[in-house]
């Protein structure tokens, strides 16, 4: 995997939650790290494990509009057209719990990580309490699946342009305002799950950037990424109230997070709390 293309932090405070368990990770019916299907096909994945299981898939938060029950199955209607079905299935002696995921009418935007995890264990750690596979839903008329967004340029050496694709083996170039960048395997790197990693100096003077590919000599372009130079100095961060609180059941909890940072810094607030869906 390409280094530096995404920033992630590991919450070590979560790890003790799994130390007390004697377990093996769940396993999937799809054993490949990458799995390819064509758009409009049905995706079926089965997960088995030692404890009750649950699925997470791309777009689960923004696309789900209606849920219901059909026997022991949970039916999720996506935009009133397609469905995702989670249903219990037959386990084994070693892994008595089984949960099958079925997605009908797949689209390019369904490309991404499909993760199965132990439902009642808060820490979702790949290879311990969770397992995932990356599914490409191949659509030759929609090779790019990212939405328009702003690309914040900081003072760091490299920046990732997250041009996500539905087809894994494309040749991708990066269009700048006045030039074109090609992956060279050294300074400019392409990762089909994350995007294009480029030196910040090469794109900081562009107004926008855009990925491009050719399929049967037909050009396809990604959505625009507007380039914005941002500060990155973080001076202080505080939670209010500062002291521990005691509430009664049903009372409202209000916590304020305040950041003091360099002018024009892009601050992305991410909260972690008990029972958060990861």
TrEMBL record:
PROSITE patterns: IG_LIKE
Complexes and interactors: Forms a complex composed of PDGFRL, TNK2 and GRB2.
Record Pfam families: VEGFR-1-like_Ig-like, VEGFR1-3_N_Ig-like
Organism: Laticauda laticaudata (Blue-ringed sea krait)
Alphabetized SMART domains for the sequence: IG
Protein name: Platelet-derived growth factor receptor-like protein
Domain Ig-like residues, every copy: 25-132
């Amino acid at each position: 995997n390409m280094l530096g293309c995404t920033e992630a932090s590991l919450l070590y405070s979560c790890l003790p939650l799994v130390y007390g368990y004697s377990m093996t990770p769940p396993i999937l019916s799809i054993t490949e790290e990458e799995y390819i299907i064509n758009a409009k096909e049905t995706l079926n994945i089965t997960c088995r494990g030692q404890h009750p299981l649950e699925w997470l898939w791309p777009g689960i938060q923004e696309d789900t509009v209606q849920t219901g029950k059909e026997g022991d199955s949970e039916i999720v209607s996506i935009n009133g057209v397609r469905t995702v079905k989670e249903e219990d299935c037959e386990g084994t002696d070693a892994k008595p719990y089984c949960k099958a995921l079925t997605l009908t009418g797949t689209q390019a935007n369904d490309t991404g990580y499909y993760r199965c995890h132990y439902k009642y264990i808060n820490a979702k750690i790949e290879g311990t309490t969770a397992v995932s596979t990356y599914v490409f839903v191949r659509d030759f008329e929609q090779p790019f699946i990212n939405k328009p967004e702003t690309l914040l340029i900081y003072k760091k050496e490299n920046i990732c342009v997250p041009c996500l694709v539905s087809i894994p083996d494309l040749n991708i170039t990066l269009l700048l305002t006045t030039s074109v960048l090609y992956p060279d395997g050294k300074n400019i790197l392409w990762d089909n799950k994350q995007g294009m990693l480029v030196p910040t100096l090469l794109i900081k003077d562009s107004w926008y950037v855009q990925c491009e590919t050719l399929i049967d000599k037909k050009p396809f372009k990604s959505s625009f990424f507007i380039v914005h130079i941002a500060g990155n100095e973080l001076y202080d961060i505080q939670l209010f109230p500062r002291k521990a609180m005691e509430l009664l059941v049903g009372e409202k909890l209000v916590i304020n997070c305040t950041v003091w940072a360099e002018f024009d810094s892009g601050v992305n607030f991410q909260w972690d709390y008990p029972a958060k869906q990861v």
